[in-house]
Hints:
CATH superfamily of the largest domain: Impact, N-terminal domain
Largest sheet: 5 strands, antiparallel
Number of helices: 5
Helix content: 25-40%
Strand order of the largest sheet: 2-3-6-4-5
Mean pLDDT: 94
Structural class: alpha+beta
Order of helices and strands: EEEHEEHEHEEHEEHE
CATH class of the largest domain: Alpha Beta
Amino acid sequence: MSQEYAIPAIPRHSAEDSIKRSRFITTIAHVTTVDEARAFIADIKAQHPDANHNCWAFNAGPAGDSAFVGCSDDGEPSGTAGRPMLNVLMHSGVGEIAAVVTRYFGGIKLGTGGLVRAYSSMVQLALDSLPTTRRFEALRLCISIDYKHITLFKRALPTFEATIDNETYARDAAFTLTLPKDNAQALQDHITELTDGTARIHEVKEE
């Protein structure tokens, strides 16, 4: 079964809020490896060297997969920042993601429960406005059809999230498509019905 999940659609995204006079800045990044996550965390720390805390959490793998995760309280009381942040990420449905919450202390202590709520809510705040796209296992198909079917054929492609990579026009119209593997059989069935079985369809094997 192919795996499909959301990932950040942009390299970095941030959100900011004040909680009891403390300034919180959440920065989220798209990361595909643990090394990328750690490099991102180091970069944010370098950008905010005077902050009281740069707490972080990441999941460098598929959404909900705990194989490539990490977190740190960065000086906050144990269990009040990194773990709550990671918990939000792991239940977000978004993979390949890292988050750093930078805190500039405002003079009012939040208590352990208040810290857990603050760091969790700051990650959620950034997630709420984070543009995402989908990571899916892709498949390429070559489809040849009669010219009279072209309009309805192209009109159907968005339904199956298929995009045209190449098209040629000779005796028939031939299209090379990329689409999620999970949608391939449904598209083939639709095209076969649309063309009364005259379409020629085959998978394009990658070199």
